[in-house]
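Format notes (please read before filing issues)

Several people have asked whether sequences and structure tokens are stored in separate files. They are not. Every record keeps both together, in the order shown below: the sequence lines, then the token lines. Line labels are part of the format and must not be stripped during preprocessing.
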Amino acid sequence: MQRIWLRGPRHGTRETFVENLPGFPDNLSTGESGLIWVALPNPRNRLLDTLLPRPPILRRLAWAAPELLQPKEKSTVWVQAYNADGVLVHDLQTTHPGFRMVTGVREFEGSLWLGSLASRAIGRITL
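Then the structure lines:
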């Protein structure tokens, strides 16, 4: 995950914020506590990791394959929080029969509110 400085002496520069995330990140938000919350809809997939350094045509072929052969998503509820230095502070992961694939996370008044494109519900975790 990259950090792009928008202000200050490093304005316009880019640097690695977190290396080798354990899942595919979706949305980020800054919490009331200053932590950076990351929604992780799915853990990494060995097949996709293998295809990443290969020519893009191979990745396109993988996604064009019949659904039966495509990598399967995991049924997980997963968010992480990092401090301003990119150090992991919270790693919250579970399963829930009515909620999965977190695509958005927002900290508000002592709770995390979770959104999903795959579930017809909103998740809430009390901090």
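For reference, the curators noted about this record: The first helix runs from residue 46 to 51. Residues 24-126 form one domain.
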